[in-house]
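Morning!

This is the sequence you dropped in the shared folder:
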Amino acid sequence: MEREYWFSEYQNRDFKISYRVDKFLAEVKSPFQTIEVFENRFWGRVMVIDGLTMVTDRDEHFYHEALVHPALYTAPSPRRVLVVGGGDGGSLREVLKHPVDEAVLVEIDGEVIKLAKRYFPKLACGFDHPKAKVFIEDGARFIRESKESFDSVIIDSSEPLGPSAVLFGRPFYEAVREKLSPGGTVACQAGGYLFHEDFLESFSKGLSDLFPHACLYTGPTPTYQGGLWTYALFSTGRHPREAEWNPPVELRYNTRERFLASLVEEKGCPRS
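The structure's back. Tokens below.
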């Protein structure tokens, strides 16, 4: 009888999700974290970092489309966009669907990029784009030391643990705010709507005074905790509800209507 191998991710002490490992592909222990890649018959290739699911072939588009496009459409004609984190390349790919002049990605762990290029080529396709610039360094330090401004900043980090913890603190967002051009926007993932309620409330309220408009919204990502993921969008210019989502880009799931319907908490965003 052939033995089955399973990977389990604990959502909390009472609940976990599990994947059958049909083929184990890679394990890399970087100076920052442990990264694993395996294949599952239903989800395709799966990347796990420190025991938490980061990306799967089957549902990554839900997450990356929700994180990137509301922010870029809210910003007025964004030309320079910064992605902090996002070493799998998915957010960079989505940014490059827009008519930007430059997309800068800053990832602290180069091993994530290496594995994405090898095992997730559809995600990593943006790394070789002529408008892309990639830096392997600490994102918080890059923000502090950069002399450049950006029209939109996408913070594609993992959970607020380990090297990503600093990307959820107020000092980081104060520094990001200083680097925004007029009308600029910031978007980040903010955790599971069902599992991180206390964090979501404190996170959004703790930053809302930095930006005229602050919104929380949700979207499906079946392999993330609870299946319903939360994002924060901050704008120094127009209300996210006022963005027209033009010019249209090719998306698999997200639309302006779905974004508007997903808003769950707003500051300075008038309801229509």
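Headline: Residues 62 and 221 are 6 Å apart (CA to CA).

More detail when I'm at my desk.
O.
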